[in-house]
Records
---
Amino acid sequence: MKILITGGAGFIGSHLCDKYTKEGHTVLCLDNFMSGNLINIRHLLDYRNFKLVKGDIRDFDLLEKLMRDVDVVFHLAAQIHVDRSYIEPRLTYDTNVMGTQNILEVARMYDAKKVIYASTSEVYGSAQYAPIDEKHPLSAPHPYGASKIAADRMCYAYIQTYGMNISILRLFNVFGSRQRDFGYGGVISIFTRRALSNISPIIYGDGLQTRDYTYIEDAIRAYDLVLNHEEPIPEPVNFGSGREVSILDLANMIIDLCGKSGDIKPVHVEPRIGEVERLIADATKAKNLLGWEPECSLKEGLRAFVQWYRNYGFEERLKIE
């Protein structure tokens, strides 16, 4: 196949680039490097079936050139950070909504066989009931979540209006190697960097807010199962562990795995505006439809991540970033 992966130099996107390049598919990696990193995909640059394109999903003309003969689009490019969306709501909307609409329209124009869209559990907001299934109200309290709701529903509208083969994946809090560890990064990566640097993790509020974490290998398996599913999947599908953990407990687990128990402890600061209080997935549909279940527990995934981070050399990573 010829596969376009938008946001392909990012955390999840680079793992997809790895998988499908090494399987022998022709892979186009599109990234504007707003949050993607060349480190994540530079080992693929010597592959003849891999091509890196620096560009933006808001550039409709560029997408027209890239997507004329593409079979499958993994659409992950987005402004993905809640905190940044408070500061730059217009950028968030333009990228996440208008950029997605561009992808869908060009895919429609050139009859792409399948579009796989990376939605998010953030569209739900805090759980009104638990666990959260796909029928849960979409009530995100921040600009990021609102933009992802709009893009999610735009995908659904293209399915209903044009009969396109678009799959909407709502993954819950993916973590693992290559996740950003500073600025607008993932909390597990940031906690790990701080712990290994003998700096206390910072927790907003009391830390009792919960999340449902999915290890990167389980997330990539979810994408691959959707890609290889023969029939269209017109309704959104959740992918999550069904297990929730508080941010406070998460911080303490990471401190322990980093060997820093007794040296540091979490520091609490004022709560963030619009903080989601509870996320926990009902992934029954993913199991029944695709046979997907998470294989890696949170503790196993955290242990693997901390080991990867130690081996990689976080000081060198920060210098390169």
---
Amino acid sequence: MTAQIISGTEIAKQIREELKEEIAELKEKHNLTPGLATVLVGEDPASQVYVGQKEKTSQALDIYSERHDLPADTSEEELLALVDKLNKDPKIHGILVQLPLPKHIDTTKALYAIDPKKDVDGFHPVNVGKLMIGEPDYLPCTPHGIQQLLIRSGTKIEGAEVVVVGRSNIVGKPIANILLQKKDGANATVTICHTRTKDMAFHTRRADILIVAAGKPKAITADMVKEGAVVIDVGVNRIGKTAEGKAILCGDVDFEAVKEKAKAITPVPGGVGPMTITMLMLNTVRAAKLAAGIA
């Protein structure tokens, strides 16, 4: 049995087409253009690529986009002043401060400064708390993307044994919270494994749905996966370069071995990655509707 490949590239494309229609309708019926501001401090190459992709996707969807590139020596006070200005700007519905920030800036302080109604990343403690009690304004982008991959690939989530490998605040904890809610596209039984789990393979072999965000190349091998499981690989690891100097990427799952055992699996690249930016756009549209009272 060779697994069905769950293409994040294709599913993200579907969602963006739906968003295009929704944005056109908001403009026509409500004279409302969703607006997203990105803030980048410093010149981290990966961050520059991510911000560029977000800007490009915004423009493709006809979302108003502002990009604020600040020098690496920008003070914490200057960054917080910019965030405050964007909080008050009615054209801006979503604010994204790109991480990582330079060491002299308190990341927590910067993220907490964003108005929760404009926190389209879903990292503010108000939005984390709303997610916990099942009443979120926004779902965090990568976990929401994972849920959509499962739903749109026809994976049965209700009643499923879900095992999440990794307990980060960005992926592991929120996806566990999303999938255990008493809601459509959820109602799963969720186990979280991490670096202190005694026998990880015991847990992963029980999983109907295995979500891996371990941050370690090929950490999940075929003997750790149940026959017929659905495997979502969140990891992106650079393990070398081609002769042309292009990065060789792999996930946290041994894809070639596991695809012969799983029912369905996401590739790396082209799996979870394309979903993250798309869900950011979806959150920006939702933020605009919430601000206008039409959500």
